[in-house]
Amino acid sequence: MQFDGAFYCDKCGSELVLRSGARGFFLACPNYPRCKFTQDAICPKCKGELKRRKGPFGIFLGCANYPTCEFTKNL
After folding, report:
1. Contacts of 47 (CB under 8 A, 6+ apart)
2. Beta strand pairing call for 58-63 and 72-74
3. What is the SS3 assignment for 6?
4. Looking at the chain, which runs of residues are DSSP E strands?
5. Using CA atoms, how far apart are residues 25 and 27, in angstroms rounded to an integer?
6. pLDDT in tens, 35-72
7. 3-state secondary structure of 49
8. What is the C-alpha to C-alpha distance for residues 73 and 8, in angstroms, rounded to an integer?
9. Span 5-19, mean pLDDT?
10. Residue 36: predicted pLDDT
11. Euclidean distance between the first and the last CA atom of the chain, given in angstroms as a whole number
């Protein structure tokens, strides 16, 4: 399984951005309100939940199943 590090909108193809809401973080299309696509922040490797984390190089998304799954995406 290859992953280029980005999540894309299923409706318009734009790269999704991280947003926060009342129920936590989610990925949303930056073209809102024209495109209202959203999805939960899910790890593409293991289907676990992605968490917003802070490291020495800044903010990133990391899999909640760490250390079993080491997926990360810089923000």
Report:
1. none
2. antiparallel
3. coil
4. 17-21, 24-28, 38-40, 50-55, 58-63, 72-74
5. 7
6. 999 988 888 899 998 888 899 999 888 999 999 999 99
7. strand
8. 14
9. 85
10. 93
11. 22
Looking up tokens 């409706």 gives: 11
C-alpha–C-alpha distance, residues 66 and 75, integer Å: 18
Cβ atoms of residues 42 and 57 within 8 Å: no
Q: Which amino acid is at 57?
A: F
pLDDT at 24 over 90: no
Number of Cβ atoms within 10 Å of the Cβ of 67? 6
On whether the CB atoms of residues 55 and 71 are closer than 8 A, the answer is no
In the predicted structure, residue 4 carries a pLDDT above the cut 80: no
